Each structure stands twice: as C-alpha cells, then as structure tokens.
Amino acid sequence: MTAWYLTERGRYQEAEVLYRQALHIREQQLGLEHPDVARSLYSLANLYKEQGKYEQAEPLFQRALRINEQQLGTEHPHVSYPLNGLANLYHEQGKYGEAEPLYQRALRIDKQQLGMEHPEVAHPLTGLANLYLEQGKYEEAEPLYQRALRIREQQLVPEHPDLAQTMHDLARYWEALGNSEEARTLYTRALTIREQALGTHHPKTAQTRTRLIALLHAMGQHEDAAHLEAAHSEQRTHEEEQKAHPEE
User: Fold this and answer.
1) Within a 10 A sphere around the Cβ of 231, how many other Cβ atoms?
2) Could you give the C-alpha distances from 34 to 48, 73, 135, in angstroms and in order?
3) Choosing a second label site near 183 at 20 to 30 A (CA), which of 29, 91, 215, 224?
4) Beta carbons of 15 and 7 less than 8 angstroms apart
5) What's CA 221's distance to the chain center, in Å?
C-alpha cells in the first residue's frame, strides 16, 4: 500500500525501491511462478510505464501475464490486469494494432467474470475509447467513454482518481469534436478531484490543469485561464514557504 500511495503522488523513485523489495521477497518466499509474484511484476511494470520506461515495463507485463495464465487460467479476472497494462503500453507507443485485441480480451474477461457494471470493466472500456479517439473513430469512442463514466460514477466514491481519469479522457473527446463547453466542465471536475486526491503537483493533476488552461485560452476566456494559473502559482508559493519555515 505504501508503494501504491507513493506512485499515486508521483514519488516514483521511492515507490520503485519498495516494489522491487516486495518482488524480491515474494520470489524468494513463494517461488518465481506464484500469482503474488505476478502482482508485484505488474505493479513495477505499471510504475515504469507511468514514467515512459517502456523497454523496462514490457517484459514485466509479459511475465506477469504468463504467470497468471498458467497458474490461474486464461479466463481468470487477474489475467485482465497485465492484459490491460500491456495494451496501455502499446497504446502509448502508437502500436494500435497490438493494443486493440488486448483491450478487447481484457474487456471480455472482466464482463464475463466480474459483471457488466464492475469498476474493473471501466479500465479496458476507457483504454479502447482512447485508442479510437486517437484514430479519429469518434462514433466508436463515445459510447465506451459514456459507459465507463456511468460505471465509475455509480460504483466509485466521487473523489476517486479513476473517475477523474475518465472525465479527463471524455473531455479530450469533446474537445476534439469542438464541444468546448462540455470539455471545460469535465476538465474542471477532473482537476478538482485530482487536486484533492493526488495533490496539486502530481503529473496527472498538472496534465489536466494544462489542458484546461489551453482550452480556456482557445475559447477566448483568457481571464479565467490567467486566474487558474495564478491560483496554482499562489498555492505552490504557499507550500514552498511552509517547507522552508515549518512550525516548530
């Protein structure tokens, strides 16, 4: 849990040390082919993917997938985790032809094993939607985004980071289609959640803030954009002052 917490807050180096320690312990205590080893492999691979270290991430995802398929069966819900991780990895590298069947397989497993409304189903749904968005397949992307958003709104707490991710991605969709008002609403909601759940300086928070500011400028709402930039700058200054002069 500590490593996950550090990852969520962008403290990747600290998280990597803990993930590697956990992997080593599990390999020593449980053997190289245990499903818990696969879980550690997946976590470490996902950490590398978040940092763009694709060459380090890919073999870990592949090994985790192989272990879970062999030890748990090809249709086990835990197989969908490394499937989705690999799909995200290929997606980010622009390997759409390799990513799509992995997303589809993960989606099929999750729906069959967990049910149509389970929160895990939203992961491959969002992945596929993003894939179609980047290929300009807008009619295929929208229903997947809407379904993922509905599932997460119904199944997750309102401040959950996964909900913010779907809002951010759906905002990108509306922005691409020229619906700036809808995009602004979703970016704003996503930014509020990410600031509260992840912190103001997390890479994902910064990502949403940057896109919202750019959108506001594109809409001619320069004053609102400047206000958002100033509020963030003020928050950063305040936090730096607190670090420099902590209460005794």
Assistant:
1) 12
2) 22, 13, 38
3) 91
4) yes
5) 29
Other beta carbons within 10 Å of 10:
17
Question: Are 219 and 211 a contacting pair, CB within 8 Å?
Answer: no
Cα 227 to Cα 240: distance, rounded to the nearest angstrom: 20
- Spatial contact of 212 and 175, defined as CB atoms under 8 Å apart: no
Tens digit of pLDDT per residue, the chain (248 long)?
677 767 766 778 888 999 999 999 999 999 999 999 999 999 999 999 989 999 999 999 999 999 999 999 999 999 999 999 999 999 999 999 999 999 999 999 999 999 999 999 999 999 999 999 999 999 999 999 999 999 999 999 999 999 999 999 999 999 999 999 999 999 999 999 999 998 888 889 999 999 999 999 999 999 999 999 988 877 665 565 555 555 54
Count the neighbouring beta carbons within 10 Å of the beta carbon of residue 225. Answer: 18
Indicate yes or no: pTM above 0.90. Answer: no
3-class SS of residue 139: helix
Domain ranges of the chain: 1-114
Positive or negative: CA dihedral 89, 90, 94, 96: negative
